[in-house]
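Checked the freezer inventory, then went back to the computational side. Two predictions to log before the end of the day. The first one is the construct we discussed on Monday; recording sequence and tokens without edits.
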Amino acid sequence: MPSWEIADVKRMQPSAEVHNGGTPPPGATTPRPLSAVIITLNEERNIARCLESLRGVVDDIVVVDSGSVDRTEEICRSHGVNFIRQAWLGYSAQKNLANGHARHDWILSVDADEALSEGLRRSILGLKGEGAIRVCRFARLTNYCGHWVRHGGWYPDHKTRLFDRRTARWEGALHEELQGFSRSEVVLLEGDCLHYSYYTVEDHRRQADRFTTLAAEELFRRGRRAGVLRLHLGPVWKFILDYGLRLGFLDGSAGLRIASISAGATRMKYLKLEGLRRANPG
């Protein structure tokens, strides 16, 4: 088992279309070339694992970096990727720009803290000869402080990440989503994308603080108000939903920490929204 693969929930047999490391059998459709696209900022802890998991699956890797001051660039260049520096434009704009630098129209979008499991690698290799398929999604399994989280709304956490850039593009300020296709077109692949999200609880708290700021700013731009119910009952409902109804308690102490921080983040988001409204009464 490769060093970067710790878990793989779904096991699938290799596709009949793939053998000898991904070469199609005689008479099969020529595999479509595939570009992997990644955006980074100070990802020296994760990027090597991500790049190694892509080896043998994609034909081109583009990394667009928004100002890393660690070893991210050095690691990327040692893997022979197309490394591009670009000041931060926002999630959707940064990803769309990165897609434009890819050599091929068929794009696999991955985050630096993700890696393809063996099952997902086989699925993608088997798909490369399927010319009619335009857009795919797959499950994402998250590692939280060393624990693989399978409940609380964190799994299967399907992500649409494999697409044709000629018809699909990213849209949205905070939670970017692919647009330009119908849901009926999306094919679900077997195998998991392994997400190494937080190494410590403090990492989670810092990310929650950052995301709640962005979420509050987006709500403010849309003219939304927090209100008493959202501010006081929203966090309670969030905890009940994630820890109870979505079975987060089955993930033990990790599930409890996740549900607690998520509930606190709900309150924090609305407090920040009210702060913005007070600072900008007009």
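The second is the one RB wanted added to the comparison set:
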Amino acid sequence: MEIVIYKKQKGPANELEYILKNEGCSVTTKLFDETAELDSIKEIRPDVVIFDEVSPDFHFLSFIRMLRSESSLCPKIIAVSSSFLPDDAVDCFIEKPFSRADIIREVFGAPEITEDENTLDMEIIVTDMLHKLGIPAHISGYRYLREAIILAVYNPEILDSVTKVLYPSVAKRFGITPPRVERAIRHAVEISWDRGLSPYLFALFGGAVRKKKPSNSEFIARVSDDLRLCYKNEIKRELDIRESCRLHAQKKRKERQKKKQ
């Protein structure tokens, strides 16, 4: 799913972006000001356009009208803010602070998704695992390794293309280059291996801990596979929910296209 997020000011990726990217969405962020134009998103053809804390002024309302009148575009329009917007300006409104379930429900248009159905927080689980493996949180490889493991848990096939797909995916998430991701992850793995004090490291790799250090892909594969086995049912349910949301969003997009014709 293609999503464009308009923000009132530049800044690092926030919780909203992370949730959407974690759900497999392709997210493009743009600055919303008086120079914002539709031409910049026509090539993207987004399924959803989100305005994050954008003031409902005259320019905003004019932009919305142009967006709705553009025949080549028919996205769902969402506003995320701590203050309300006019009811007829957007398709739905998400008030801050929001939950992951709020985002999934409104962005994918799937009201059947509830907070109870999204209890598996893989980020917390992987974070705990990295701590057990003795990888310090202050190094950049810690963040990149966590992201790589999460991607591999939900999509094991990505490990078949570590250089061409996995590293670029992590790099895009953090706005850096794939080689930098590879080096930082290698450093994180080296720290964990050189310390060799973690009982969990022995549980994962056994006697190999005293032998040659694994490659990045071997390390990510072993950790992600262990998680996949431990949380097999929860991950299957999570993937089923994502697929249900994707199909629901696809259906809603076709309905909007039909109304526009």
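For RB: Residues 232-260 form the longest helix (29 residues). Residues 45 and 209 are 49 Å apart (CA to CA). Let me know if you want it refolded.
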